[in-house]
Amino acid sequence: MAERERDYKKVIRNLLAKAEHPNTPRAEAEAAAAKAAELMIRLGIDQATAREEAGKRPEDVEMLRLKLQDDHGTVLLQAFNPIAKAMGAETIAIDGDLIMVGTVSLLNNLDMILKVVEIQMYGAANAAGEEYFAKLKKQHPTWSEDRIGDTTDSWVWDFFRGYGEGVAEKIRSKRQMIIDESPSNALVLRKDDVRIKDAYNKQFPSRGSVRVRAIHDNSAYSRGHAAGRKADLGDGHVAGRTAGMLNG
């Protein structure tokens, strides 16, 4: 198990490094980040199984507070929330920050994967936004630069949210595939899901989930969603946070 764990971690580190590198083509970078997410889920199952077989107590459940940028915090929260939930975390928004509840390894993995997704998402959104800005300028020659800029910003925010949901959809699909591979995989993930949910309900008994805001431009959301789905799990082309313990 120790050797296999080292191999997993080495591959994950290499995939994340590839995803973060500025010279990696966007499609390859997105696929690398998503493949890393898949391996993180598999590693978590192996680690949980090994602990149970050795008679050890389950991994602790903790809370991770993701402090978001003041200027882009709302849209990042909407983009990151579905990704965190797809990986198996419970989430809530408090004072503009995204609070994630999960096992220690799950939160560590989310901390890594969200950093990489953020880089990819900004790159894709900036490119799409520049194209949309130019399109508006051509279509509406009488519009002021401020009006075009504000309209583009609103379009890009919906792109962000679509991107996050696109990545989340691929992670959910891969997670379900891993569950379907064997009853033992399903049991391990189900046990963790129950412990995470119980810890979340104990910590936040009277709070609801993250509120999903309305989409203003479906074309922007759809384009972002398509870009996020390019983070194809298992794809053949792949060549300020604070934590606190919860009772769980």
Description:
This protein is an alpha+beta fold and 248 residues long. Helix content is 68%, strand content 9%. A hairpin with a 2-residue loop joins β2 and β3. It is globular and about 70 Å long.
Quick summary:
The protein contains 7 helices and 4 strands, in the order ααβαββααααβ.
Spatial shape: globular
Range of helix content: 55-70%
Secondary-structure class = alpha+beta
Give helix and strand order, one letter per element, not per position.
HHEHEEHHHHE
Strand content: 5-15%
Residue ranges: pLDDT <50 for 5 or more in a row? 232-248
Query: Strand count, sense and closure of the main sheet?
Result: 4 strands, antiparallel
Number of helices: 7
CA distance, first residue to last residue: 25 Å
Rounded to an integer, what's the Rg over CA atoms?
A: 19 Å
Q: Write down the overall mean pLDDT.
A: 81
Number of E-state strands: 4
Widest beta sheet: strand line-up: 2-3-1-4
